[in-house]
């Protein structure tokens, strides 16, 4: 035995060591054959993933986002809290409020008396979902929608919250959800922009919306949201100047793109090709846009369905109708913003009018998509950027009060696009202040939207300034419970 | 074994050690070519060799240091070689397994355990082989090494088997657990197929005849009816007092919450199920189909019994290459795979004016692959449906607002995979659809809104085809009239200098606009109907309402028109405007633009000029003298924010700027507490006077009255326009 060990030691000379090493290196070499990307500086196969194509078969092809800007009060619309009425004027227990930060508007308030909804709730549909009397039309479609009562966000003021919901970050400069989808999915209709924006203003206290909310961020500028306005020229600068016909325009564009090609060859800036693409799309939009924007052919049933305001440009109802038309024509993401939900004071009066403004048309959009067989492949989202407090802001009287910003819980609804219809997901506590079950973070919500469109939110990335960015930053889980 | 061969095998083992370590280290980047997948799939074949060989080798290793064995030459050599071969087989198995794991469908915790235990075996076996001749390698080490390897083998084998055959593979046949999906909906019994499985999975591990926690048994109907130590389990039809429901609804932190902390909890669906079962008193024999169609328990049951198609659909055709797909795309036709690596294609066609059925015929190369075809609003005719029928694998066909009729539907009944057909806005009628609809075997939804099919016929279709969802959509039955929106104004400006036509409009066709000019409310009978013949000569307030058959009349719209016959050629401010309400300076007052109420409105900032600390004083000059007899001023009142009418307005005029004559002095009334914000105008009238210069001085209120919350402060005066006539 001793002898053998000695022999073994003697045999293990330098030659043997080196030949073993070479074998090891051979092993590595063999293995590396199976890893084409090993030495590509850690580059993920981004190109392969993001060729404007879903990662897996999508449920939804398009999104219409009815953004209720200013934060609608969940207590007066969807989140029924009878207990709050019983506790009228009572101080909110510190155990409930916890260490929640307050806005500058109520931070100096000496007391925080609870206040319940001034309006009654009833249960509707097969889902027996509670909906307030402020939304008579929405209450008729509860079996087509999924109400999520347990959304929460991180921001407490409008602009950061809105930016967070739209871009996944509270600071600006990131691409908006629509831009990510445009980037991830590519065009369905090459004659219209992938991402369009429609603005309207309600009666209530308005909060600004800025074009950064539909920015392409660091993505190619073809993914930027295109705002359609209410005037005679819905898309600015699309009309040919007087005296220029289509043929001349064509020739001009051809010559221009030759020049741009030369300049691309010289500088290699991808923005140059993006620009050429945009010129070409604008040329085709010159015929496609007037066709889409023409509301004169809509039937009487449609006008009755959406309400008479749908023919008044710039109203929420008209924007809902346009959203349907754009979506029907293959626009991936139609983003509406309806301002006026910021009821810090005088809430009962303002929210009544504000709700009336959007109720019929929001429900009509769902019904209209459904009757065209499009609801299955179109995801409709309705909701604001955060919720409102269970306690009053400012003076509390029997019939008047206000509510401040509340990030800990808010309600949204979704319809179509592979979302389970007729369910209510998540619950808040009996004071409607904290989430009691199934919380959905903004990033979870975003991950879910991307998932329905066939995109893995962890793989939809773009490398910028040395790191990869996603819509969901570094978190987010798909909310599988609400998927069909 | 020959020494050369052994040397070679040892070297191979060493290389494998490095290769495997390397592969695992960079596992995320591994891309397995198709031909290697075959190798990977041999993993389940080869894996039996290392198991058996290493088991024998470890047994021998365990007893290796026994004297009779350590002196036995054959034993020593055989063991050494067996170990080497076993380790090599382990290497091959590990590599294959790694390849296999990269294929679709392998993920999760089980795989992770299998992978790491398998890897462990290989490295321990290799380690034993390398160090087993060292001087420190004695019996205890050898034995523990052998035991470790055997445990590893058992675990790896178990995890691997679970991966392939699923959990509980071995005991499945003898356990009575029924597969939920296996029960057809028609035969399902509420208790047996919905409630019992929940109880068995989540409760019966403690509440069974062997364990009897709380003296409660939840395995058979008799015991369930009997209840436990705390009493009856439930009161049929009365969920509020049922112990079962109380316990499962308690907060999870509660001691009495069931199932107890640490055990598998009930899902919301299961809680709902138990609640409904008690509430509806469904007992133990009721069938699911006996429940009403819209019953919540039945809906829940259907959702649970019919397995949801979460998996992606598998297609039985091959993909066409990317280039072919790419070249089929043009500006008005999009052809795209449903997803990356999916063979199925989706086709959208746009632009009605450019449509031609050839656009479909050109897709012949991919006709098998197209599963979704969107022809919304294209002028597709019945005879074109032949071309569509060639896309034999279509799942979804959108023919909304095309020119097809029910006659053509026969052509596409050959689409045996068709699931969704949209015919909204077409000329399809009941008879044609009724006769063809059964030919679509797989059809799930058909939408027929805005067709010749009536609401009653939709209901009829739905009734006779329960497996298809027939979408009729919204049709106005006239029972629920809506209110029209108010008329709108088309005049470019409501300030005019010469006679101007009144232009009113309404977005809805066929609406009658009735209006008044005397300030009264228009009615639906007597007030004149608006036509474009009304000419405005004077400042006037138009009140208008819209009316139409089948609608409620609109709210009243009020339009104030102001005549301003003379425009001064120049205007100068004598005193400054308030810093934040400069508007367009002196020009503001004669720019024909009226402001609106509301600080959030863009027109607010641009059109309102204001003063607070001094008078609003302007001098306007006419190049040619004009004879005037009135001066008007339009202003805003919002008492809540301290915006008040002027205290007093003086109008001065004359041919010489230094010797102006006071023409009139107007003192408008004050608003009262609680007045809504409003726009008002005042007018000073006087005997006709020929003027070249006109001075207008409006003084803001110096002290806001006591009833206002801004009492005692200076009021703000906001003026947007003045009128000289």
UniProtKB/TrEMBL annotation, chain A:
Domain of life from the UniProt record: Bacteria
Protein name, UniProt field: Tat (Twin-arginine translocation) pathway signal sequence
Organism: Dyadobacter koreensis
Source taxonomy: Bacteria, Pseudomonadati, Bacteroidota, Cytophagia, Cytophagales
Automatic annotation (TrEMBL), chain B:
Transmembrane segments: 12-36, 42-60, 81-100, 112-131, 143-161
Keyword Heme listed: yes
InterPro entries: Cyt_c-like_dom (IPR009056), Cyt_c-like_dom_sf (IPR036909), Cyt_c_Planctomycete-type (IPR011429), DUF2231_TM (IPR019251), GH29D-like_dom (IPR059177), LRR_dom_sf (IPR032675)
This protein's record includes keyword DNA-binding: no
Keywords, ordered alphabetically: Heme, Iron, Membrane, Metal-binding, Transmembrane, Transmembrane helix
GO molecular function, one term: heme binding
Domain Cytochrome c: 182-282
PANTHER family: CYCLOINULO-OLIGOSACCHARIDE FRUCTANOTRANSFERASE-RELATED, F-BOX DOMAIN-CONTAINING PROTEIN
Protein name listed in UniProt: Uncharacterized membrane protein
Organism annotation: Dyadobacter koreensis
């Amino acid at each position: 035995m001793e002898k053998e060990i000695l022999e073994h030691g003697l045999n293990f000379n330098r030659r043997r060591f080196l030949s073993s090493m070479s074998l090891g290196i051979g092993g590595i070499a063999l293995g590396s054959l199976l890893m084409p990307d090993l030495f590509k500086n850690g580059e993920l196969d981004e190109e392969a993933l993001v060729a404007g194509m879903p990662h897996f078969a999508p449920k939804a092809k398009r999104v219409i986002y009815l953004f209720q800007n200013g934060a609608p009060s969940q207590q007066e619309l969807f989140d029924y809290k009878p207990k709050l009425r019983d506790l009228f004027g009572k101080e909110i227990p510190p155990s409930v409020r916890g260490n929640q930060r307050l806005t500058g508007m109520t931070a100096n308030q000496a007391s925080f008396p609870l206040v319940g909804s001034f309006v009654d709730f009833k249960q509707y549909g097969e889902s027996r979902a509670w909906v307030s009397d402020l939304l008579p039309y929405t209450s008729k479609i509860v079996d087509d929608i999924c109400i999520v009562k347990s959304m929460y966000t991180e921001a407490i003021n409008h602009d950061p919250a809105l930016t967070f919901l739209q871009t996944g970050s509270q600071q600006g400069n990131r691409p908006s959800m629509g831009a990510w989808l445009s980037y991830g999915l590519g065009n369905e209709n090459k004659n219209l922009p992938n991402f369009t924006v429609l603005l309207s203003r309600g009666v209530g206290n308005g909060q600004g919306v800025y074009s950064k909310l539909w920015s392409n961020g660091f993505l190619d500028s073809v993914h930027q949201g295109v705002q359609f306005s209410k005037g005679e020229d819905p898309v600015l600068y699309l009309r040919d100047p007087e005296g220029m016909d289509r043929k001349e325009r064509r020739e001009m564009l051809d010559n221009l793109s030759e020049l741009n090609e030369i300049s691309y060859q010289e500088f290699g800036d991808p923005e140059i090709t993006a620009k050429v693409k945009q010129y070409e799309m604008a040329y085709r939009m010159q015929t496609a846009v007037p066709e889409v924007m023409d509301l004169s052919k809509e039937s009487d049933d449609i006008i009755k369905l959406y309400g008479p305001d749908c023919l008044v440009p710039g109203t929420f109802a008209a924007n809902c109708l346009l959203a349907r038309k754009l979506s029907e024509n293959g626009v991936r993401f139609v983003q509406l913003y309806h301002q006026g939900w910021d009821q810090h004071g005088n809430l009962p009066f303002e929210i009544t009018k504000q709700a009336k403004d959007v109720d019929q048309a929001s429900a009509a959009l769902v019904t209209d998509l459904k009757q065209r067989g499009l609801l299955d492949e179109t995801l409709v989202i309705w909701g604001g950027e955060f919720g409102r407090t269970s306690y009053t802001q400012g003076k509390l009287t029997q019939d008047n009060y206000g509510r401040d910003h509340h990030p800990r819980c808010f309600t949204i609804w979704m319809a179509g696009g592979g979302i389970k219809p007729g369910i209510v997901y998540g619950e808040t506590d009996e004071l409607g202040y904290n989430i009691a079950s199934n919380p959905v973070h903004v990033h979870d919500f975003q991950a879910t939207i991307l998932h329905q469109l066939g995109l893995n939110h962890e793989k939809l990335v773009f490398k910028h300034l040395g790191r990869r960015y996603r819509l969901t930053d570094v978190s987010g889980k798909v909310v599988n419970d609400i998927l069909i | 074994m020959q020494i050369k061969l052994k040397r070679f095998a040892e070297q191979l083992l060493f290389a494998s050690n490095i290769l495997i370590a390397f592969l695992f280290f960079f596992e995320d980047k591994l891309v397995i070519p198709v031909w290697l997948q075959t190798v990977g799939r041999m993993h389940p074949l080869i894996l039996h060799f290392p198991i058996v060989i290493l088991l024998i080798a470890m047994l021998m290793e365990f007893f290796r240091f026994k004297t009779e064995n350590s002196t036995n030459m054959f034993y020593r050599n055989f063991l050494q070689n067996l170990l080497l071969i076993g380790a090599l087989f382990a290497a091959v198995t590990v590599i294959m397994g790694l390849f296999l794991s990269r294929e679709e469908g392998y993920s999760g915790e089980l795989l992770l355990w299998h992978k790491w235990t398998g890897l462990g075996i290989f490295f321990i076996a290799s380690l034993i082989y390398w160090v087993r001749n060292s001087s420190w390698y004695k019996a205890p080490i050898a034995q523990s090494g052998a035991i470790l390897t055997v445990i590893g083998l058992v675990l790896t084998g178990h995890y691997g088997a679970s991966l392939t055959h699923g959990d509980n593979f071995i005991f499945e046949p003898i356990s009575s657990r029924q597969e939920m999906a296996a029960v057809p909906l028609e035969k399902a019994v509420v208790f047996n197929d919905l409630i019992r499985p929940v109880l068995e999975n989540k409760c019966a591990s403690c509440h069974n005849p062997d364990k009897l926690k709380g003296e409660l048994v939840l395995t058979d109907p008799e015991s369930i009816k009997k209840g436990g130590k705390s009493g009856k389990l439930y009161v049929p039809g009365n969920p509020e007092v049922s112990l079962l429901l109380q316990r499962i609804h308690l907060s999870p932190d509660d001691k009495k919450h069931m199932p107890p902390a640490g055990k598998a909890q009930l899902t919301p669906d299961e809680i709902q199920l138990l609640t409904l079962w008690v509430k509806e008193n469904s007992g133990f024999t009721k069938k699911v189909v006996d429940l009403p169609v819209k019953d919540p328990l039945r809906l829940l049951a259907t959702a649970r019994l019919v397995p949801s198609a979460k998996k992606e659909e598998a297609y039985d055709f091959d993909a066409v290459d990317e280039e072919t797909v790419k070249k089929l795309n043009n500006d008005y036709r999009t052809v795209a795979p449903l997803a990356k690596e999916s063979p199925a294609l989706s086709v959208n066609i746009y632009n009605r004016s450019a449509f031609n059925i050839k656009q479909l015929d050109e897709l012949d190369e991919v006709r098998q692959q197209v599963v979704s075809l969107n022809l919304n609003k294209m002028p597709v005719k019945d005879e074109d449906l032949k071309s569509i029928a060639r896309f034999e694998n279509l799942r979804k066909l959108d023919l909304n607002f095309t020119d097809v009729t029910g006659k053509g539907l026969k052509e596409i009944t050959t689409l045996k995979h068709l699931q969704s057909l949209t015919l909204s806005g077409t000329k399809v009628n009941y008879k044609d659809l009724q006769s063809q609809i059964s030919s679509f075997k797989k059809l799930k939804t058909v939408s027929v809104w805005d067709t010749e099919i009536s609401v009653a016929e939709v209901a009829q279709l739905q009734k006779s085809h329960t497996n298809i969802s027939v979408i009729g959509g919204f049709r106005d039955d006239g029972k629920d009239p809506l209110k029209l929106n108010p008329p709108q104004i088309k005049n470019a400006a409501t300030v005019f200098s010469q006679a101007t036509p009144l232009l009113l409009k309404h977005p809805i066709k066929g609406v009658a606009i009735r209006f008044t000019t005397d300030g009264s409310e228009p009615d639906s009978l007597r007030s004149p109907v608006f036509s474009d013949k009304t000419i405005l000569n004077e400042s006037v307030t138009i009140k208008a309402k819209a009316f139409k058959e089948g609608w409620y009349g609109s709210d009243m719209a009020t339009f104030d028109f102001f005549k301003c016959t003379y425009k001064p050629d120049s205007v100068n401010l004598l005193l400054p405007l308030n810093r934040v309400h400069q508007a367009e300076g002196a020009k503001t007052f004669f720019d024909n633009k009226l402001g609106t109420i509301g600080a959030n409105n863009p027109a607010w900032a641009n059109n309102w000029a204001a003063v607070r600390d001094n008078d609003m004083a302007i001098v306007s000059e006419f190049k040619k003298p004009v004879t005037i007899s009135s001066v008007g001023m339009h202003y805003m009142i919002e008492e809540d924010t301290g915006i008040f009418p002027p205290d007093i307005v003086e109008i001065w005029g004359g041919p010489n700027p230094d010797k102006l004559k006071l023409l009139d002095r107007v003192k408008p009334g004050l608003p009262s507490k609680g007045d809504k914000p409003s726009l008002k105008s005042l007018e000073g009238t006087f005997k006709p006077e020929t003027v070249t210069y006109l001075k207008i001085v409006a003084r803001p209120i110096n002290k806001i009255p006591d009833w206002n919350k801004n009492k005692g402060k200076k009021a703000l005066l906001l003026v947007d326009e003045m009128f000289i006539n």
